[in-house]
Write a structure and sequence with these properties.
It is built from 10 helices and no strands. With 172 residues, it is mainly α. The mean pLDDT is 83. Pfam families: Sigma70_r2, Sigma70_r4_2.
Amino acid sequence: MTDQADQAYREYVTDRQPMLRRLAYLLCQNWHSADDLVQNTLVKLYLRWERVAAATDRDAYARTVLVRVFLSERRSGWARRVVLVDAGQDATGVSDPDPAAAVAVRTALAALPPRQRAVIVLRFYSDLSVDQTAEALNCSAGTVKSQTSRALAALRRALPDDEPAAHRGVPR
């Protein structure tokens, strides 16, 4: 890689690492696993930087790589054999106005299968369209819609009914 391309990569990573880390945390539900996921993603981006630099939307490319690495790791035996425990919340965590509701939503999100969790995170956190989510997950728009429907139904069952859906961040 040329010095100029290497510098462009470093600038991109410096600028976008916090966004990738937050997205990875929502997928992994653990800061340590999220950091590993981001690191694996950044390695893949570096190895293909010429292609990434030529992409019309670098963020979409990086997001797609991150989600595919996440799903690939969940399919491997490693994810079933190794369980990492987060001893405490990272200092970079954002305080929520209602910590109990935030914990309930994160717990319900963590209980979803990896593909459904990825769909929910991409659709509602990253605010991607059905087609953009389908492209990131390398599946059809119909699959995204059905996975979204199943995931939202599971979240509704898992979350307490004592407060309106709008306050829980889950669309009805």
